[in-house]
Structures are given as C-alpha cells and as structure tokens.
Amino acid sequence: MLTWLQTHAAALNVVVGGVTLAVWIAYLHLFFVSFRRARRAVIHIGMAAQQGEEARCLVTNMGADTVYILAIKVDLLCGDETFSALVTDRIEEDVVLGGNFRDKTNQGPLAGGEVVDIGSFRNILCRISQQKDAVPDFETCDAMEVTVVVAAQQADVLMGGSKRYDITRFGHGIQFHPTDVLTRQITSRSRRRALHRMITQRAG
Predict the structure, then answer these.
(1) CA 20 to 30 Å from 22, out of 4, 29, 48, 49?
(2) Taking CA 117 as the corner, what is the angle to CA 132 and CA 84, rounded to the nearest 5 degrees?
(3) pLDDT, tens only, 146-192
(4) For the residues of 57-97, what is the DSSP string, one character each?
(5) What residue ranges of the chain have pLDDT lower than 70?
(6) What's the sign of the alpha-carbon dihedral 119, 125, 128, 129?
(7) Are the beta carbons of 73 and 147 closer than 8 angstroms?
(8) What stretches of 16-172 adopt beta strand conformation (E)?
(9) Residues 87, 73: contact at Cβ < 8 Å?
(10) CA–CA distance, 98 with 110 (Å, rounded to integer)
(11) How far apart are the first and last CA of the chain?
C-alpha cells in the first residue's frame, strides 16, 4: 500500500488539490449567494385596520438594509380601461399611523424592518382622481394595483414590490381584497427599466 501511494503521490496530490478547490468554490458561492440575499430589498405591501375605504395601506421594508422610497404607483382597473398615476405625495389632510412624520410625501428612507403608512385606500384613490380626468366612480372599478419603487443597495439598484387588490361592493361602500398574501417583488430588468423611465419622465 505504501509503495502504491509513493508511486501515485503526484496524481493523488492533483486529485486532493482539485477536491479542495471545488469545496472552496462551493463555499464561496454559498457565501456570495447568502450575502446577496441578505442585501436584497424585500418590500411588503399590506392592509391594516379594516378592509373598506378607510383601511390603511402599509409598506414594510423586510430587508436588512435601508431603502429609499422613490415613488408609489397605482393602477386602477375599470372595465377595459386602466388609470395609472403616481401617488407618492400626500394631497390630503390625514393623520398617519405612527405619528406625524412624512406629512406631505411618502418619499424617503425606510430602515430594515420599518413600516410606513402611505394613506388610506380612499385617500390613495382620491390622489388618482386629482391627476386623471374622467376617472369613473371607484365603485364601478374592478381592482387596483399598488407598486412601491425603492432605491436599494446604497441607492445603486432600483427595486420594489407590487400587490393587487380586488374591489368588491359591500352595502353602500366598497372593500379591498388582496389577490395574494405575499407581495410580488420587482426583480426583472425590463420591469425595473420601465419603472425607471416612468420616474425619470415624471421628474423631468
């Protein structure tokens, strides 16, 4: 056995070196994936207080790093028409959950684990009607989709999340029902580019 080892020592060294290298590459890959996952921005959009027009729409940063809310976009689906508008700024007199911060805008930093109240669903719908002509009665619409756009990773990457709420009639009012418990994350390059163009055009 000793003689065989001495004879094949060079080949064994190559094999052992290759295995060691493969283990280190696998370890570094796992470390890199874990690092990227830890830095990835994860946005959650939720509802609080109730399901009617006075329900509050909450945005939570589920990631570890601070993100900066750039814009909040809402698409209102009414039959064959879709009305889209940026509703980042507050146009109404409203008392937000958690204090009097961000009285005029929802734009700003959001630390990891922090939540911000972006307004009631009724106020969000009113922000759309202030910007768009011929918006139909909200009670005749089918759904609304809320999209939150953030600058993440030290403001180097555009990311965000979106959630759709179906609108149903309830007595003399309307209610909002999320189509999914989870928030759909915006990760595709094409979607991020489209949002970047939208924000840039509005800023210009």
Answers:
(1) 4
(2) 20
(3) 999 998 876 677 888 999 999 888 777 788 999 999 999 988 888 88
(4) EEEEE-SSS-EEEEEEEEEEEETTEEEEEE--B--S----T
(5) 1-12, 27, 29, 31-40, 91-104, 132-136, 154-155, 202-204
(6) negative
(7) yes
(8) 43-48, 56-61, 67-78, 81-86, 108-110, 115-120, 143-152, 157-170
(9) yes
(10) 14
(11) 78
Structure tokens at 121: 């669903």
pLDDT digits (tens, 9 = 90+) for 66-75: 899 988 999 9
- 136-to-77, 89, 171 alpha-carbon distances in Å: 10, 22, 19
CA angle 131, 137, 143 (to 5 degrees): 85
pTM equals 0.74
| Upper half-sphere CA count for residue 147 (Cβ side, 13 Å) | 22
The one-letter amino acid code at 44 reads: H
**Cα–Cα distance measured from residue 53 to residue 176, given in angstroms and rounded to the nearest whole number:** 8
Supply 31's token pair. 């470390």
Q: Burial, 6: exposed, middle or buried (Cβ in 10 Å; 0-12, 13-18, 19+)? A: exposed
> What number of other Cβ atoms are within 10 A of residue 150's Cβ?
25
